[in-house]
Structure formats: structure tokens, C-alpha cells
Specification:
heterodimer, A: about 80 residues, mainly beta, OB fold (Dihydrolipoamide Acetyltransferase, E2P), four-stranded antiparallel beta sheet, about 50% strand, B: about 325 residues, alpha/beta, Rossmann fold, six-stranded parallel beta sheet, two-stranded antiparallel ribbon, 11 helices, 8 strands, about 45% helix
């Protein structure tokens, strides 16, 4: 079963985030805990680790703001 | 004014129990970080990583029905005092079966059955509340004591000084536990506090002030046990300053850029949790295998609590008007 990648809430007042970089390519194998994407919110950029291991599928656009909880890709 | 150390060192079984509670805090915290970073729970998160042994060694000196008042950076206090994992996780996730029906969230964990009467969201505000609980014990003569936990920054708040003075005047059975991790949010101790240490502030209010290495399980246990004995004997309050450090910022998203790298590296190298494990094994109180088994059990319990919290339903909309002053009670 694919594991959805969600926009996490990473600071107290964060309501949306912008993915500024994927640290793995679409279709690549990713490992749980390894840096997966950089997200910008509240004027700071944070690297977020992969929540699971498997093949990455990116289903969102770079540099576009998404609400916390939005599915931005999956790992299968 | 200081009091002599009279309490014995913890025995082997107690040290193993301190280790168990410290590992519970560590694993629970790790899982919270993972879960929040994966977007499965949306909540502010204040990591207690680095302060586990302090809380565990303190809380084992209290009875199950003694009171604890902590602050929003208090996950370690709550777990060490015995707040059940499932209710805690469900509350973090905002679910109906949480310890506050999902309406308090991580910053207000409350579970009177385990003695955690309230977790406050405002720095320093829990200190007078602990006085109130201690006064109730004194009036009722039920022998319970109250412990309130706060950071170094809280000792610069007026409520701290007012509460310590009154507790001393009334000889309340209360323990003021300052967990001095050397940073009040992003402000270093030296930049925010005018005196050399927190313990010396006790002298102003005529109570013992004790400074202890909070990351040393034996020293922390003895300091807490001394304060508990004083409170139970009706001799009044104690201020404990337990020195410690935090490894993961004030709140999730804080990268600790204001902490010198060498200071952080030294603190992590002296991580109190593996240090306690080495101490226990070297003394022959437990084998590595026995401690591994304790850890395996904790990992399984935390995984179960996480799955429970995710699966449970959110509170009904009708709950919005319950437990609050939604309608005037007196017409």
C-alpha cells in the first residue's frame, strides 16, 4: 500500500508550506529517515525526512503553496 | 539556607525503573517527531530529549497520588509521572478519547488520575497553582505533596517570586523544580538571568535551595527525595535547580542556531540515557539483555498508542459547547 506524503506542520503557526526542492527524484528509491524534501514556511526552510521506504512518486508542483495535510506525493 | 543531603541513593531496582521511564520518554519523543514530520499529527512539539533522566529520577520519588503541575515543555514530566500512553497520544492527535477529550491538545495535558493535575501554556503560571494544591493538602491533612516543574526563564516571572514567598510563609508541602537547560526559548541563561544560579534565589524566601546535576540519576533522585521528605514532614518547600540540556530546540522547527555547536556536541556526547544504562550494567543491577527487553516492550507500547491515536475518532461538534462557558449558568 502506498504511503501518502503529507505537508507537515513544522512550526506553531504554520498553515501552509511550499516545496522548494525534492531531495530525491520522482521514481527513485527512498529510505525512511533520509532527507526527502525541503519545505519553506514562515520564512524558514526545513528538510523533511522520508516517512517510509520505497519508490517515490511526486504528485505536486514545486514552488507552490499547499495547506498543511495536503498529499504531495507517495511512497510505494 | 541549604539542607544536608540525608536521602539514600536509589537501590538497583529503582535505578532500573528510572531507566525504564527515561527510555519511555525517549522512544515516545522519537515517535512524536517522526509522526509529526510525516504530517500524521498536526501539533506543536516541544522535545524533552536530553531531560529524560531528570524527570524519571524525580518522579519515582513521588507517590502515585502526589500532584504534578508542569508546563507545555513537559512531555517528560507527564510520562515519568504515569500519564497513560494511549490517552496522551490521542490527546496530541486531538481525538475524543484523549486525556482532555481532544480539546486540550499537547500543551495542556491533564490527567488527575496519575497526579498530573494541569499542564499550563504560560511560562511560570503553574507555580502558584502548585501552591494551591499544596494548601489543599495541608488543609485536608491528606499527606499529598505538590511538585511544580518549570524552566530557568520562569524564575524571572513575578509569579515565581510571589509563590515561593507564600509557600515559605505557609510552610506548604510543595517542591519547586527548576529544570535549568540553560536556554529560555532562544535566550541564554547569562543573557536573561541576573544571578549566578537559580538555587540561590531560595535564600530570599527562607527555604533551602539545592543545585544538582539533573542528568545524574543518583544525584537527582537524592535531591528530590530530600525535598519530598521535607514536604511530607511539614517542614515546607524546597527549590531545586536541576542542571540539564536540551538536544532538539525549544520547539519543533527550532534548529538551535543560537547554541554554540561545541556546547551542543558536548551535551549530546554526555547523553544521560545511555550513561545511566552503562551505570546500571556496570553495577550489575541489570544485564544488557534485560534492559533490551524493557526497551522492546516500550517500543511496542508506543507503536500501539500511535495506532490507537490515529484510528480514534475526533470529538463530536457538540463537544465545542461542553466543558466551557457556552451558555450562562446563572441567568
Amino acid at each position: 500500500m502506498a504511503y501518502d506524503i503529507l505537508v507537515p506542520q513544522l512550526s506553531f503557526s504554520m498553515t501552509e508550506g511550499t516545496i522548494v526542492e525534492w531531495l530525491a527524484e520522482d521514481g527513485a528509491a527512498v529510505t525512511e529517515g533520509a532527507p526527502l524534501f525541503s519545505i519553506e514556511a514562515d520564512k524558514s526552510t526545513v528538510e523533511v525526512p522520508a516517512p517510509a521506504s520505497g519508490t517515490l512518486s511526486i504528485t505536486s508542483e514545486l514552488n507552490e503553496a499547499y495547506a498543511v495535510g495536503t498529499v504531495i506525493g507517495s511512497i510505494a | 539556607m541549604t539542607s544536608p543531603r540525608t536521602s539514600n541513593a536509589p537501590d538497583g531496582d529503582t535505578l532500573v525503573e528510572i531507566y525504564r521511564r527515561a527510555q519511555l520518554i525517549r522512544h515516545c519523543g522519537e515517535q512524536f517527531l517522526k509522526t509529526i514530520r510525516a504530517g500524521r499529527i498536526q501539533a506543536p512539539y516541544y522535545s524533552p530529549r536530553g531531560q529524560e533522566v531528570l524527570a524519571a529520577a524525580t518522579m519515582v520519588t513521588l507517590a502515585a497520588d502526589d500532584y504534578v503541575v508542569t508546563i507545555y515543555r513537559g512531555l517528560h514530566d507527564q510520562l515519568a509521572k504515569g500519564v497513560p500512553l494511549k490517552e496522551l497520544w490521542a490527546e496530541y492527535a486531538g481525538k475524543a478519547s484523549g486525556s482532555c477529550k481532544g480539546k486540550g491538545g499537547p500543551m495542556h495535558i491533564t490527567h488527575p488520575a496519575s497526579g498530573v493535575v494541569v499542564t499550563t501554556g504560560v511560562v511560570g503560571s503553574g507555580i502558584p497553582i502548585a501552591n494551591g494544591l499544596a494548601l489543599a493538602s495541608q488543609v485536608n491533612g491528606d499527606g499529598k505533596i505538590a511538585l511544580t516543574s518549570f524552566g530557568d526563564g520562569a524564575t524571572n516571572i513575578g509569579a515565581f517570586h510571589e509563590a515561593l514567598n507564600l509557600a515559605s510563609v505557609w510552610k506548604l508541602p510543595v517542591i519547586f523544580l527548576c529544570q535549568n537547560n540553560l536556554y529560555a526559548e532562544h535566550t541564554s541563561f547569562a543573557n536573561g538571568t541576573g544571578c549566578e544560579n537559580i538555587a540561590m534565589r531560595a535564600a530570599s524566601y527562607g527555604m533551602p535551595g539545592v543545585q544538582v546535576n539533573g542528568n545524574d540519576a543518583v544525584a537527582m533522585y537524592r535531591a528530590a527525595a530530600d525535598a519530598v521528605a521535607r514536604a511530607r514532614a511539614g517542614e515546607g518547600p524546597t527549590l531545586i535547580e536541576a542542571r540539564t540540556f536540551r538536544f532538539e530546540g525549544h520547539i519543533l522547527g527550532d534548529d538551535s542556531h543560537y547554541i554554540p555547536k561545541e556546547e551542543m556536541a558536548a551535551a549530546i556526547a554526555a547523553d544521560p540515557v545511555p550513561a545511566l544504562r552503562r551505570q546500571i550494567v556496570a553495577a550489575g543491577y541489570a544485564t544488557d539483555e534485560a534492559l533490551d527487553a524493557i526497551e522492546d516492550r516500550i517500543v511496542a507500547d508506543v507503536a500501539e498508542a500511535l495506532a490507537y491515536a490515529i484510528a480514534e475518532p475526533y470529538p463530536d461538534v457538540a463537544e465545542l459547547g461542553r466543558d466551557v462557558l457556552d451558555v450562562e449558568i446563572v441567568p
